[in-house]
Amino acid sequence: xxxxxxxxxxxxxxxxxxxxxxxxxxxxxxxxxxxxxxxxxxxxxxxxxxxxxxxxxxxxxxxxxxxxxxxxxxxxxxxxxxxxxxxxxxxxxxxxxxxxxxxxxxxxxxxxxxxxxxxxxxxxxxxxxxxxxxxxxxxxxxxxxxxxxxxxxxxxxxxxxxxxxxxxxxxxxxxxxxxxxxxxxxxxxxxxxxxxxxxxxxxxxxxxxxxxxxxxxxxxxxxxxxxxxxxxxxxxxxxxxxxxxxxxxxxxxxxxxxxxxxxxxxxxxxxxxxxxxxxxxxxxxxxxxxxxxxxxxxxxxxxxxxxxxxxxxxxxxxxxxxxxxxxxxxxxxxxxxxxxxxxxxxxxxxxxxxxxxxxxxxxxxxxxxxxxxxxxxxxxxxxxxxxxxxxxxxxxxxxxxxxxxxxxxxxxxxxxxxxxxxxxxxxxxxxxxxxxxxxxxxxxxxxxxxxxxxxxxxxxx
Length: 461
Hints:
By secondary structure, this protein is mostly helical. The protein has helices at about 1-10, 10-60, 70-85, 95-105, 110-125, 135-150, 155-175, 175-185, 200-215, 230-265, 270-285, 295-300, 310-325, 330-350, 355-370, 375-385, 390-400, 445-460, and strands at about 190, 415, 420-425, 435-440. The protein is built from 18 helices and 4 strands.
């Protein structure tokens, strides 16, 4: 008995070690609670100001007929400001933050905040096909980085604080605190979650959301109650639907890449004007509903109304051109539009409930394009209620797999291989990964399919 007590309870060195361990962990919780509350409050305030100014500007601008004819000039103004003052503000926001976290330990110049705020407002208000989450994530990350530099944080702690800024920005702009917290820790790596930042990200997301709500921001909520009874056959239909959404994500990302490569070859002044003119022309020929955020069309789709069959394609093209030619803004809202429009189309083709599958399509496309299926699953529950959760989660995971090794955030680092049949370079940025090599394995379904495909092609040769 004495030996037992001495070994486990009376050894002073071990007792000190245990006390020290718990003391450090408690101090860490208190430290990150304090800083997460500060960042959440400040970012929620900044997001509220951004959303208020965006709404105010949009109402004023859209009061004029043919306001969108000024879009080429606004894209040019946005491109010039970004190029001359803050190149870090280029693109759709979140991508630049991910790049800064991986390559600069979250070091983001504070000038990003006003530049991103102004350029995103003029691009969106005048009809640019962009979103509002990217500016909020980048503004949040920029504010967090400034605080970290002011308090002389270590590179590791600065990175953590910047991730809190991302979470607070995402949670504030969409009114989804839990999904926002998860998005900040999931979006940096494909297939990995930064658990060490989960707690402060959660606190920052919750505080940011409640702070932003003080501005009277109205968040999109639409409880889905028409959910079919679960059967094995219906589950198979859902999986097939998710595969189609994954292919839409493939089209969306590849279109984005194509437009970036095209406009990179054009001088930025000519490219900005040309891009704006093309966007305006397509909108005049098709529909002006594809301009701006497109929130009314998203709401219509989820309410069960029918959208034009090619709505998802036109929105994809306009978003890619707007961002590639120098427009500033986010990319998640266009993803929501394209996902809802795709779900709307496929639901009508296969006889599903239009509203339910428009909502699922919106969530699944977000999961695929951002490689964030866990955040997407929680986002579905926060936006549409728990009843849709199972189907939204299944679709998110399937679409995430189908989209393969590509992303709207090229600086994401690949943490897993999505299939053991492909040899992919782990721990590299997704933009640096070429087409993964296929390795046919013996005695597997994929290997058998590959063998049959090879034999068939040999016959026709």
